[in-house]
Each structure stands twice: as structure tokens, then as C-alpha cells.
Design goal:
Blueprint: H1 7-10, E1 14-17, E2 25-28, H2 30-33, H3 36-48, E3 56-60, H4 63-75, E4 78-84, E5 92-99, E6 102-109, E7 118-126, H5 130-141, E8 145-154, H6 160-166, E9 171-176
Parallel strand pairs: 3-4, 3-7, 7-8, 8-9
Antiparallel strand pairs: 1-2, 4-6, 5-6
Amino acid sequence: MTDTANADLAALIRTIPDFPKPGIQFRDITTLLLNAEGLAATIDRLATMHDGPFDLVAGIEARGFIFGAAVAQRLGTGLLLIRKNGKLPGRTVGVDYALEYGEDRIEMHADAVVPGCRVLLVDDLIATGGTALAAIRLLRKAGAMVGGAGFVIDLPDLGGVSKIEAEGVPVGALVAFDGD
């Protein structure tokens, strides 16, 4: 772990070695979610890490919905759902993005934002940044201005934060873990 500012939160995140495959150190947030004080502190800190105002908070499926909903409530905004392909009813807009082995697609409702809407993007973890970058492209495609991206966990060795910052989006993460 490289960040000590939120050591109280980092201590609530369990590491499960060799999951989902050998050599991976899985950072499990379920133990953080079980702790009422830790969960409340996480939401408060995510909600205050970027300068607003924001019109919406966008949560990335699925764990981003947990944090995004709470941050949206704390900021007094609505919650925009960014979902995997085919999960939303009604008319959608989407973007395809590359995975390590193949492609995926994320979508949102076509009428979810109005041009110029200021959005805060929230998810549980930033690793390589592929999904978050796709979400930023999707939001911009719909006319939104992405005013910040907040994550509970950063895996800095994988470089996702720098990729998002290169797109001109301020990024914050509460804790960072070195390694996989």
C-alpha cells in the first residue's frame, strides 16, 4: 500500500491472494462495506474529493452503483447508471472498448444527460483504466462534461489514473495498493 492518508479505510479492505487466478492479489471491498463507520467515511471522502458542483454522479456497473448512489445522495444529485451491453431498457447510447482478450461495451440511456451536464464518475477500483476511459468517452459522446473521477482503490502499477488524467479528467482515489 502506498497511500497512508486513508489507512483506516485500507485496513478494512481484505486482500485475497491468488483470486481469481494465481498471482493476483484481489482487493475485496465487501469487508469495507460491512463496516458502517468505514462505509460512511468512504462515501464522505469520495463526495468531497472533487470540486463541484455536479449535476449527476455516474456509477459504473456493478460496484460503482453502490458508491455512486451514496455519493449522489450526499451531493444532492441524481445517479446515472453506466451498464454492460443489453442491460438497460429503452433507447441507449454506448461505446465499445478493448479488454485484455477481446472487446466489451458499456451503455447508458440516450436521454440520461443534457449537453453541458457536469458529471462525477465513481467506481470502486481503477486498474488499467479501460472501463473508466470508455465511460468518459460515453459521457462526452452524450454531451456531458466529466468534472472528476473518484475511486475507492487505485492499483497504480497498472497505470489507469495517468490514462484518465491524460484525458483532462481530475482523478482521486482513497487508497492505493502496489502490485497486482
